[in-house]
């Protein structure tokens, strides 16, 4: 799934509820999901990790929607490799 499509699906599915909840609460939910991902990385199964990665990406999409950020544009700076040195793999010291 492409990021723009994900953002549209998240908006269509949760947009009204997420905007009512507000940005501070969305950030709190995202932080909670990152914590769950950290636990899954340390002690979880592959399926649990996959689930938590999905949750984190979905909450990032929700937050981006609320903030008017296009995720495709946001990550475009990584399209050619390291945004700092321009190399892949990164050649930064």
Total helices: the number is 4
Gross morphology = globular
> Fraction of residues in helices?
over 70%
**Sheet with the most strands, sense and barrel status:** none
Poorly predicted spans:
none
What is Rg? 15 Å
Query: Strand portion, in percent?
Result: under 5%
Structural class from helices and strands? mainly alpha
Intertermini distance? 34 Å
Instruction: Return the string of H and E elements.
Output: HHHH
The whole-number mean of residue pLDDT values reads: 97
Count of DSSP strands: 0
Q: In words, what does this structure look like?
A:
The chain has helices at residues 3-21, 23-43, 46-67, 71-75. With 93 residues, it is mainly α. The radius of gyration is 15 Å and the shape is globular. This is Pyrophosphohydrolase. Pfam families: MazG. InterPro entries: MazG-like_dom. Residues 25-78 form the NTP pyrophosphohydrolase MazG-like domain.
In short:
This protein has 93 residues and is mainly alpha-helical. It has 4 helices and no strands.
Summary keywords:
single chain; about 90 residues; mainly alpha; about 70% helix; globular; MazG-like_dom
